[in-house]
Amino acid sequence: MIWAQGSGCLIIWLLAGYWAGKKAQTLNLPSKPEAGILTMIAATLVMFVGMWLVGSTGGLIAGKLTSWAWIAVLLLGCIFVGGQALGAVWVLRSVVARETSKNEEASESQEREL
Length: 114
Fold this sequence. Notes:
Mean pLDDT: 85
Low-confidence stretches: none
Number of domains: 1
Order of helices and strands: HHEEH
Helix content: over 70%
Structural class: mainly alpha
Radius of gyration: 20 Å
Strand content: under 5%
Largest sheet: 2 strands, antiparallel
Number of strands: 2
């Protein structure tokens, strides 16, 4: 039963990550890669602490997740993949914006000299 529960969660997590990545691309995020890294770390901490709580409060019985634990694991996974997708987009956008602005200045100065 745990394999079916895990497989169902995995499909939803992949869809949530895809949706969060697409949504994050449309957001107007400040150019602070540190914030993206902190978002990814926070999502990871939420998942690990949540999974520890699920495991320590009897969420796994007889080789399967209880109903409340399955919902909790599903939500924790969605928070994790959403945070990872948002953080990754945030970091990449910040780095690309910095590199692009550096390269534009170099290109403009070369054109002026010609």
